[in-house]
Write a structure and sequence with these properties.
Length: about 350
């Protein structure tokens, strides 16, 4: 039985922080000197980075060894996948069941708070800016498609059979190599006037050679995609199959036996004790002021083929508890307390008095 919820999405970029800006809220008479905010719950994002490689046969692959001495030509169209990296990140999201109000007494000196667009608390009585986002971008490293019409000479086009065309194409390759060598050794009849021109000509010759060689050895295209699985941890998880991976099909569903399983384990390393009814009631009476999260901690590991592919520790709000800052802290008219929070966990980052 799965002890978590999974939402899988295929994406090309993921914002590391969901909130892109913060909003200043002032505690004034019109809102009864109260600012509403929400505390987050923890989601874990598992980002699987997969490299897809497409191999395409060249039209003259049968003649690669005969005319060019090449024995590694692609002989069949096929696609492979490689699981490059798997990374887990903490992603706090608003928990609407934990909505509170920052209450200030009338007369407090200009009380205010900064919230994210989703209402998560960032700071009280202090200016705050969301740190610059670090976005993971899928890498696309594709070989250019071979435009056969642009590289085939009149002689090649006039050749009848495929064998004859391959022979002509091979001669073009050797002529290009000879021209490049003559330019580099200074034996060319048309020596480039300067180094810049030489570099440009050499580059063009190399591009022509590569395009012609692709007719024999084929082409290889690589693209990288990121598939994200979002997990809402509620308790310890022992080797649950998060997804499966196939070198022929890439990421497949957890119940698809055509792929090797990637197991997720999550173990609470710091967890708040469960209070009985009396203890919970007693604590509730003390929860006056600014309520914040005191998260627990958990270790997360991912394994594949009996090897650990990820291991990390995370703050998990669901494993922690809630505490409160006494209202009296914010009543000093001369030197109001400044408090900074981690919006992704709702925990206190810093208090400045």
């Amino acid at each position: 039985m799965k002890n978590f919820v999974i939402i899988a999405t295929l994406i090309f970029s993921i914002p590391a922080v969901a909130q892109t800006k913060v909003i200043k809220k002032n505690a004034i008479k019109s809102n009864d000197y109260g600012i509403t905010y929400v505390l987050p719950k923890t989601l874990l994002q598992v980002n699987a980075n997969v490299v897809k490689t497409v191999y395409t046969v060249g039209p003259y692959y049968r003649y690669a060894e005969k005319y060019l001495g090449v024995d590694n030509a692609i002989i069949a169209n096929h696609t492979t996948y490689k699981l490059k990296t798997v990374v887990v990140e903490n992603a706090g999201v608003p928990d609407q069941d934990n909505t509170f109000i920052v209450s200030f007494k009338p007369g407090t000196v200009a009380p205010y708070a900064y919230l994210t667009e989703d209402g998560l608390l960032c700071a009280i009585n202090a200016d705050y800016e969301i740190p610059a986002e670090k976005r993971k971008k899928a890498v696309a490293n594709e070989a250019s498609d071979v435009n056969e019409a642009s590289i085939k000479s009149e002689e090649l086009l006039m050749a009848g059979s495929t064998s004859k065309q391959a022979e002509v194409a091979a001669r073009q390759i050797y002529r290009i190599r000879e021209s490049r060598m003559n330019i580099l050794t200074g034996e060319s009849d048309n020596t480039p006037p300067d180094g810049v021109a030489m570099k440009l000509i050499i580059q063009q010759l190399e591009e022509q050679e590569q395009a012609l060689m692709a007719l024999f050895i084929g082409t290889t295209k690589q693209t990288t995609q990121i598939k994200t699985f979002t997990i809402a941890p509620a308790e310890d998880i022992e080797k649950e199959v998060l997804f499966r991976f196939s070198t022929q099909r890439g990421i497949v569903d957890a119940d698809d036996l055509g792929g090797a399983p990637i197991y997720l384990s999550l173990t609470a390393t710091e967890k708040a004790p469960i209070l009985d009814a009396k203890e919970a009631e007693k604590k509730a009476k003390k929860m006056k002021g600014i309520v914040y999260n005191d998260p627990g901690k958990a270790n997360v590991t991912l394994t594949m083929n009996a090897k650990t592919i990820f291991n990390g520790n995370f703050h998990i709000t669901q494993f922690g508890t809630q505490e409160a800052l006494a209202p009296v802290l914010f009543e000093d008219k001369k030197a109001p307390v400044k408090v900074f929070f981690y919006p992704e966990t709702g925990a206190i980052k810093q208090i400045i008095q």
